[in-house]
Design brief:
With about 180 residues, the chain is of the alpha/beta class. It contains six helices and eight strands. The C terminus is likely disordered.
């Protein structure tokens, strides 16, 4: 008998015919098919699933539009750690290519969820623009974005605009005037 087979029998993970003992299958998180065969042992690379274009499916869609010295970034999806790379890359590209940039509007109306990592991404974007005097403005944040910012006390850190008035009209204000 081979050493591996002996150890398997000694520990009780499998019987001589290759079946998993009920206790061992339970401990290992494996199921048993009706014929007694072990199920649930599938190979996994450990890497997250990717879409056909090679992206993590949790990565939100990020688009940017430049209008003079104002850029508008639109985020659609979840604002989580997966959003960091595309948002920081887009912001960095804008800062490097547009020396006259003075405002970045982040349209978050279609963000369905934001966690603490998403909050950190917003703070990082704001810090990226600060040395150049580029203001980060949140456009019409839904409750999924506003509430985490309010609960963490970061709401007042951001300029929030509830409409798209570029001249800073009546819908413009800081978070402390918009928050509640």
């Amino acid at each position: 008998m081979a050493t591996g087979d002996y150890l398997d029998q000694l520990v009780g993970t499998t019987s001589r015919d290759g079946f998993c003992s009920p206790a061992a299958c339970c401990l290992a998180g494996l199921g048993r098919a009706s014929d007694g065969q072990v199920s649930g042992m599938e190979e996994s690379s450990g890497a997250p699933a990717v879409t056909p274009n090679g992206q993590d499916p949790a990565t939100p869609a990020v688009t940017s539009v430049l209008d003079g010295d104002v850029a508008t970034l639109t985020v659609v999806g979840e604002l989580t750690e997966a959003a960091r790379r595309p948002l920081v890359r887009t912001m960095t590209d804008l800062l490097l290519s547009q020396s006259s940039l003075h405002e970045v509007r982040l349209d978050v109306r279609e963000v369905s969820f934001m966690n603490s990592a998403g909050t950190a991404v917003l703070v990082q974007l704001q810090k990226l623009g600060a040395p150049r005097g580029v203001d980060l403005v949140l456009l019409s944040p839904p409750p999924s974005v506003a509430r985490p910012l309010q609960l963490t006390g970061l709401w007042r850190r951001f300029t929030v605009r509830t409409d798209e008035e570029p001249d800073g009209g009546p819908g413009t204000g800081s978070g402390d005037q918009q928050g509640g």
